[in-house]
Design brief:
The chain is an alpha/beta fold. It has a single domain (5-303), classed as Ureohydrolase domain (Arginase, Chain A, 3-Layer(aba) Sandwich), CATH 3.40.800.10. 34% of the residues lie in helices and 13% in strands. It has 11 helices and 8 strands. The protein has helices at 24-30, 42-45, 72-95, 110-121, 151-155, 161-164, 188-197, 204-210, 212-223, 257-264, 290-303, and strands spanning 5-11, 49-54, 99-103, 126-130, 178-181, 200-202, 230-235, 273-279. It has an 8-stranded parallel beta sheet, sandwiched between helices. The relative contact order is 0.16.
Length: 319
């Protein structure tokens, strides 16, 4: 059984050091399946409704606009505006009893996505965060000041007051309900915060030893404990760098394709999943549509397709 899904594409790279990710959502939405003979676009294939947030022009002339003075104010104002729009569209989608699939854009939009989820459901929820990075900096700890490295801290109540208080004054996410999978590139400040908060982090070394499927299943158990609803935020740089040239901060020793597809087949139809987020595709960096093809495979598999899984999954997630 498939649910009504709304695509919210957020064309923004304001929170990233390389703003090329701002073209990712629109490029992907308008793409046709590069793997099958079909003329249906991405936004037509998987979704019944779609909204587009165009935060800056596709041909933005300064893809590496600095976060330092005098650009920092412009940067932050645009980040805030984009996050607010994301919050508004996710809220509208949930009120319309549709499932929000948020497509970035850089990962700073997660503050809008999950703040809207918290406001709407008005209860604790779990969050599975698939990423090569910890994304738990604050302005006091971040070397780059890039807001795509700060969303988790903001959701747990740390960092810019404008982000922390979006939707309500209270933190949106409890540390014990968060699981991070695949982290392998981070700084001391964010690591120390997560350690102090006792967040469950499955670093890439653990994923390599235990396997992605075991780690994902444990994360799912934590995120849904006590019958909680949960969400998933997937930064494509969680995949190994060799698989995703089309992202701004690829890192080696990441997820392999087969393990992710096998473990997450049909997850979009899990009865406790309240929203899904996919971020950080940068088409300008892609090579022969390699990353684009993987994203099509991933989303098809999340919906239930199994043609790209060579070994039979042990189970499929369903309503």
């Amino acid at each position: 059984m498939s649910r009504h899904r709304t695509l919210i594409s957020v064309s923004s790279g304001w929170g990233a050091s390389n703003m090329g990710t701002g073209a990712g959502a629109l490029c992907l939405c308008h793409s046709v399946n590069p793997l099958l003979r079909t003329h249906k676009r991405f936004d037509e294939t998987f979704f019944q409704k779609s909204y587009q947030i165009q935060a800056h022009p596709m041909g933005i002339p300064t893809p590496k606009l600095s976060f330092s003075y005098p650009n920092s104010k412009t940067r932050f104002e645009n980040v805030l505006d984009t996050i607010q729009q994301t919050y508004d569209y996710v809220s509208r989608t949930l009120k319309n009893q549709s499932f929000p699939f948020v497509l970035g854009g850089d990962h700073s939009i997660a503050v809008g996505t999950w703040s809207a989820v918290k406001t709407h459901i008005n209860q604790d929820f779990g969050l599975i965060w698939l990423d090569a990075h910890l994304d738990a900096h604050t302005p006091q700890t971040s070397p780059s000041q890039a807001r795509h490295g700060m969303p988790l801290a903001a959701l747990m109540g740390y960092g810019d007051s404008e982000l922390v208080t979006l939707g309500s004054e209270l933190p949106k996410l409890k540390p014990e309900n968060l699981v991070i999978i695949g982290a392998r590139s981070f700084e001391d400040g964010e690591h120390d915060l997560l350690k102090r908060l006792k967040v469950r982090v499955m670093y890439s070394d653990e994923v390599s030893v235990r396997g992605f499927e075991a780690c994902f299943n444990e994360a799912l158990a934590i995120a849904t404990a006590n019958n909680k609803p949960f969400g998933i935020s997937f930064d494509i740089d969680g995949f190994d760098a060799s698989l995703v040239p089309g992202t701004g901060t690829p890192e080696p020793n990441g997820f392999d394709e087969e393990s992710v597809l096998k473990s997450m087949v049909n997850i979009l139809n899990h009865d406790k999943l309240v929203a899904f987020e996919l971020v950080e595709y940068n088409p300008a960096l892609d090579q022969d549509n390699k990353t684009l093809k993987l994203i099509w495979k991933l989303v098809s598999t999340l919906e239930g397709a199994q043609q790209w899984i060579t070994s039979q999954p042990q189970k499929t997630h369903s309503l």
